[in-house]
Amino acid sequence: MKQLFVVLFCFLISTCALAQNPTSKNTFLTSVSESACKCIDSINVYNKSRDTVAEEINSCIDKQVTVYQLGGQMMDLNEILEAAKGKKKSKKKTKSKITINTNKNSDQYKKYYYEIERDLMETCKAIQSKIAAEDKQNHASMSKNKEALALYYMGLDEIKSENFTKAIEYFHQCLKIDSVFSFAWDNLGLSYRKAGDLDNAIRAYKTSILIDSTGTMPRQNLAVAYEYQKNYQAAILAYEELALIDRNNAEVFYGKGRLYAIHLNDYEKGLSNMCVAYNLYIDQKSPYRSDAEQMINYIYGKMKEAGNEKRFLEILKENKIEIN
Questions:
Q1: pTM
Q2: Helices (runs of H) and strands (runs of E) counted in the chain
């Protein structure tokens, strides 16, 4: 049974407070996260599947867990000793020890791993770009034309600089040379979406899908564009079509969960989908687990307000998720 390492929204506020000094343990967490972030930034995502990239990110975090366990517990112990200073000796003896658990399936290991992961998701730009990348190639993904490729990479550089108008120009020039360059269509769609032109973004994504019916990223981005258009049913349909070619894609369930919970106020459907996403993210060792965790928190708050806390817990149990 999977465990949800989450403090449920503000309703459990009494357990939210961390018994730690923000200038010590939090600073140490920042240092550990920075080391993991540098490792993640060095990952080459080109022509790799989502699962492969997630495994490499997982390895970067794993390298820091033992360090964080040791340092974090040493700081906790130091705080106990500091708090004891100046107080009268108690007849009860306080037993304090440091234990390092290297079992990746243990609660202790997961606790420290997830703390690093959450911090990375908030502070490390590299982790967001790496897990969002989907550059796995097939016959239609890349162009064999050198001029088209040069323009394509110029467009990618403009996306990185957030100069989306210029990026659009480069991708159009690229596609005049090679009109079946699916990655160029994908990034043209992204550029249009970032520039706020959702109609053209949708056209670009659909063209990419026509060229390569197995492409996962244009289908996922198509759903996002429909959501921005507030066409929520079309967005759900796009996710369901993505599931037909990639049934273990956690983004399908995360995306549908968000749509149901945030926009359609159907919290039970939202939670059911989010739980599937959460479990898949854990199985795939994806840092997006943290995003699913936050959404489950949000849904808990809404269901609690409506007096549906019992149903919330039932859905978690149905998905073999425990609250820890």
A1: 0.74
A2: 14, 2
